[in-house]
Amino acid sequence: MVEFFENGGAFMWPILGVLVIGLAFVGERLYHLIKAMKTKFEFAVSVASEVEKNGFESALKTCEESEGPVASLCYNALEVAAQGAEIAEKTVEQTAGIELSALEKNMTWIALCIATAPMLGFLGTIAGMIVAFGQIAAADNISPSIVAEGIGQALNTTAFGLVVAVILQFGQNVVMFIIDNMVVTLQKSTTVVIQSIANKNK
Q: What's the mean pLDDT in 146-167?
């Protein structure tokens, strides 16, 4: 592996840098999402039950003491619960976009790293081919070893760039899978809480 990296030339270093940066953003998103999953659909069900049993203030206090987007949206709905379920639903719709943006934060940087890695690889290949053809032109006797060594070195950067892109693409897909599941959880959770608000205000 070390020999493969060394044979790729100078362009291997920026590709490695892209890998490190991309993995850092993937790790940051996973850490944030794992923290956000502390409150799930079951939490919203318990809040809805609290609303029906002890009223809005008690349920609001429960949300205040909890973390995560589910708790935040439930809190926003309960803040205006006394004004009716329609107002609570509109409030949740307005603030849901903020929570979604928080979940998707830095995803564009991961996408940029995925796009940049193979482009740097191709650029390294072109640079390597230029050097290889220069060596061929300078050589008195053209031998297969000169051609093979130069082209092999050039292609290493393309291979490494594609490997980095695949690794980061996998990380991005894992993050997006978690976000999609959380969006569904948010929708289900807010529906349950708003329904409890509607029942309480009858």
A: 83
Tokens at 97, concatenated: 């976009």
pTM confidence score: 0.83
Q: Residues 60-96: pLDDT tens digits?
A: 888 888 888 999 999 899 988 888 888 888 989 888 8
SS3 per-residue string spanning the chain: CHHHHHHCCCCHHHHHHHHHHHHHHHHHHHHHHHHHCCCCHHHHHHHHHHHHHHCHHHHHHHHHCCCCHHHHHHHHHHHCHHHCHHHHHHHHHHHHHHHHHHHCCCHHHHHHHHHHHHHHHHHHHHHHHHHHHHHHHHCCCCCHHHHHHHHHHHHHHHHHHHHHHHHHHHHHHHHHHHHHHHHHHHHHHHHHHHHHHHHHCC
